[in-house]
């Protein structure tokens, strides 16, 4: 069964080589969908024999994954981010599962995520199953700007794999906060377009619940200082994303 691996990139030259290398024993086709990188991401991809498609208009992660799938010739699709790595054990497991698949399976892959140099085992970050492997003709991603989800048909059989992929989510604080800012603004825009509104006075309570959820409910305290730091940063993220929504609705009222 031919497998196409799709990797979305923008300025991922430092990550891309190791990501592609981890797929060497699995991929029949590697497609790099680049969003106008200003580093040498495209050159790295081409040097590794990946098919490169460049999009200059950003419409969100969901639409980008939909467009990417149209360029895939494989019977099966596996989506990866450049900061993710397949392990040899996971590669063998995927091969075994696909050899007996009938076509309506969607495979959920757990991710072992690293924040800076710390593996996060709690905080709701593990096993962090993601639906990434499915038959090309069977389904596709939704239209969400961020936090896109795979459309799951009613007759789908979700199979939860045991072997995790490695996810080097944020190697620096600058990278972490830059990504959070992107998510915050996209959240506000997306929710506003859907007609959602927020009461300004509710935002501190939402932030407090965000902290409680990560640190206590999801047992972030078991991750030590990094768990506390993450819970605090999540509270800040919740605050900012709802402020982005509030500002969007407020600006609309002023027009």
UniProtKB/TrEMBL annotation:
<keyword id="KW-0812">Transmembrane</keyword>
<keyword id="KW-1133">Transmembrane helix</keyword>
<feature type="transmembrane region" description="Helical">
    <location>
        <begin position="228"/>
        <end position="248"/>
    </location>
</feature>
<dbReference type="GO" id="GO:0016757">
    <property type="term" value="F:glycosyltransferase activity"/>
</dbReference>
<protein>
    <submittedName>
        <fullName>Glycosyltransferase, group 2 family protein</fullName>
        <ecNumber>2.4.-.-</ecNumber>
    </submittedName>
</protein>
<feature type="transmembrane region" description="Helical">
    <location>
        <begin position="198"/>
        <end position="216"/>
    </location>
</feature>
<keyword id="KW-0472">Membrane</keyword>
<dbReference type="InterPro" id="IPR029044">
    <property type="entry name" value="Nucleotide-diphossugar_trans"/>
</dbReference>
<feature type="domain" description="Glycosyltransferase 2-like">
    <location>
        <begin position="4"/>
        <end position="100"/>
    </location>
</feature>
<dbReference type="Pfam" id="PF00535">
    <property type="entry name" value="Glycos_transf_2"/>
</dbReference>
<comment type="similarity">
    <text>Belongs to the glycosyltransferase 2 family. WaaE/KdtX subfamily.</text>
</comment>
<keyword id="KW-0328">Glycosyltransferase</keyword>
<dbReference type="InterPro" id="IPR001173">
    <property type="entry name" value="Glyco_trans_2-like"/>
</dbReference>
<keyword id="KW-0808">Transferase</keyword>
């Amino acid at each position: 069964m031919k497998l196409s691996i799709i990797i979305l990139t923008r300025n991922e030259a430092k990550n891309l080589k190791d990501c592609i290398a981890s797929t060497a024993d699995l991929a029949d086709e590697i497609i790099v969908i680049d969003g106008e990188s200003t580093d040498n991401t495209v050159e790295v991809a081409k040097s590794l024999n990946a098919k490169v498609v460049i999009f200059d208009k950003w419409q969100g992660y969901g639409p980008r994954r939909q467009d990417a799938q149209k360029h895939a010739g494989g019977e099966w699709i596996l989506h990866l981010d450049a900061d993710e790595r397949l392990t040899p054990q996971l590669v063998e497991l995927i091969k075994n599962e696909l050899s007996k698949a009938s076509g309506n399976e969607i495979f959920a892959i757990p991710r072992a995520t690293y924040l800076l140099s710390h593996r996060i085992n709690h905080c709701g970050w593990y096993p962090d199953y993601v639906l990434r492997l499915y038959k090309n003709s069977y389904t596709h991603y939704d239209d969400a700007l961020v936090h896109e989800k795979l459309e799951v048909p009613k007759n789908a059989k979700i199979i939860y794999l045991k072997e995790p992929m490695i996810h080097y989510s944020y190697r620096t604080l600058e990278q972490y906060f830059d990504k959070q800012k992107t998510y915050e603004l996209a959240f506000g825009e997306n929710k506003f377009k859907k007609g959602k509104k927020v009461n300004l006075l509710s935002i501190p309570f939402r932030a407090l619940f965000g902290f409680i959820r990560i640190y206590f409910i999801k047992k972030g305290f078991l991750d030590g200082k990094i768990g506390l730091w993450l819970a605090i940063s999540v509270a800040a993220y919740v605050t900012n994303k709802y402020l982005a929504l509030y500002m969007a609705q407020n600006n609309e009222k002023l027009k």
